[in-house]
Amino acid sequence: MDPIAPFLQELKNKTDKTVQHLREQLGTIRTGRASPTLVDTIRVDYYGSPTPLAQVAHISVPEPRQLMIKPFDGSPPVMKEIERAILKSDLGLNPQSDGKVLRLSMPPLSGEQRGKLAAKVKDIVEQNRVALRNERRDTLKHVDQAKKDGALTEDQGKKAHDAIDKELKAVEHKMDEILKAKTKEIMEE
Fold first, then answer.
1. Domain spanning 7-27+110-187: CATH superfamily
2. Equal CATH topology for 7-27+110-187 and 36-105
3. Model's pTM, two decimal places?
4. How many CA atoms lie within 13 A of 172 on its CB side?
5. pLDDT tens digits for 45-101?
6. How many Cβ atoms sit within 10 Å of the Cβ of residue 31?
7. Residue 37 backbone phi and psi in degrees, to 5
8. CATH code for the structural domain at 36-105
């Protein structure tokens, strides 16, 4: 078995989690288009306990600029709590209720709003890049410690460093693609 494989696998597991976290963070950023992931972070006070909105209601996209939220328990107190949670969120949307479902209409974003959202996306990606660099640093420390302990030779340590850097470049490229795609989505009309 390759002695550097465990180090690379550990790094890959961490970077995969970082990329997944980035996708989740960017999914909650509003664009001109409706997406159920926009309301993923909203918690509803459901009979005294904060519950994710997706666990108390069905969320669908009937039109490109509209979300429809249909509570599983259609009682008026639950509708009011869902409405209150949406109003408290930082989405800036006003739910329209007909007593059975809530509709969230996505108004078109102004140029200024689009610019602010694009800058926010860039900041989020940069924060995740810092996390990647920390993961790289930690993995390199483990490799250097293994080299010091005699578990790896000098050549294996060099090979591990090169493989770790190569893996990190691939993940950073993936993050750049995610950034470009999300920025493009925000800037579209």
1. Ribosome-recycling factor (1.10.132.20)
2. no
3. 0.74
4. 15
5. 888 888 888 888 898 888 888 889 898 887 888 888 888 888 888 777 788 888 888
6. 20
7. -70, -15
8. 3.30.1360.40
* Phi, psi torsion values for 49, nearest 5 degrees: -125, 135
Which residues of 35-98 form beta strands (DSSP E)?
A: 43-46, 49-52, 57-63, 66-71, 96-97
Continuous H helices in the chain: 5-27, 76-88, 111-149, 154-187
**Vertex 162 angle, CA 143 and 171, to 5°:** 100
Specify the length of the chain in residues: 189
Give the whole-angstrom CA distance, residue 79 versus residue 67: 15
Instruction: Count CB-CB contacts under 10 A for residue 72.
Output: 9
**Cα 123 vs. chain centroid, distance in angstroms?**
13
Most confident of 13-17, 27-31, 95-99: 13-17
Domain spans of the chain, in order of start: 7-27+110-187, 36-105
Q: Are 187 and 114 in contact (CB under 8 A)?
A: yes
Amino acid symbol at 139: T
Tokens of 36: 């159920």
CB 7 within 8 A of CB 160: yes
